[in-house]
Here is the input.
Amino acid sequence: MSRQEERSITLYDGKAFGYEVSEYALKNGYLDYLTLSKIVGDCILNNTIRAETMMDWEIVTGEFKDMIFQDYIISEYGYKFLAEHTDEIVFYNKKLDIYVWGITHYGTSWDYVLTDIKLMGSYICKEEKDCYE
Here is the structure.
């Protein structure tokens, strides 16, 4: 997918890849991080592994343009999903065979932090009352 194209996910029955999208995301028309993390799969918080082995990591997707506040170990599936659908930064350590998702935001519940993935489909809120149908 070209970086110039706007990324999008089509909702089916108000869900993205089988996961309910937050009301905040529906109101704003963009996928929230909580739903993205559910799609990615198991995320294990580990803020020390990358720091302790800094020289052994390579960026496999995304760009290191923002400060990273948290690191989550993710699966290869999670890495592939993020690489295909987002510009999120993911690191890989060949020696450990581990992918780490670098999170560049903090302090706000993930269902209130939006990604750059546009939501498509009939479940997007056009007006406040539409969110409750």
The chain has four helices and ten strands. The first strand starts at residue 8 and ends at 10.
